Amino acid sequence: MTGKAKPKKHTAKEIAAKVDAATTNRGGGKAGLADRSGVEKGGHAKYECPHCKVTAPDVKSMQIHHDARHPKIPFEEDKIVNLHAVRAPEPSKPRPGVRGSLKK
Ligand SMILES: [Zn+2]
């Protein structure tokens, strides 16, 4: 034990609250209800953080998450994983280009 625990700039609770506020749709009305029930979104958040796999319903929320959690990594919209665009390939089909090196 070094006894030198660094004080954290942001507490986990703080960040969680921030992320929660950013990713939870608290809006009322029909649009909010549809959004919350996930009817139109396949029941899951649309975007996934490429760095820690946290999900968010939109790019703006993801950017807020990114700024909170990965401040040293530049935010790049292109790198966000769009879960609705990336469909799981059919398991019966061989996946091209994932073999990697077969060298021994
Ligand atoms: Zn992240």
TrEMBL record:
Coiled coil: none annotated. The keyword Transcription does not apply. Its main location: cytoplasm. Residues 1-11 have a biased composition (Basic residues). Residues 1-45 are annotated as: Disordered. It is found in: Cytoplasm; Nucleus. InterPro entries: MBS1/2-like. Keywords: Cytoplasm, Nucleus. GO terms for cellular component: cytoplasm; nucleus. This is Zinc finger protein.
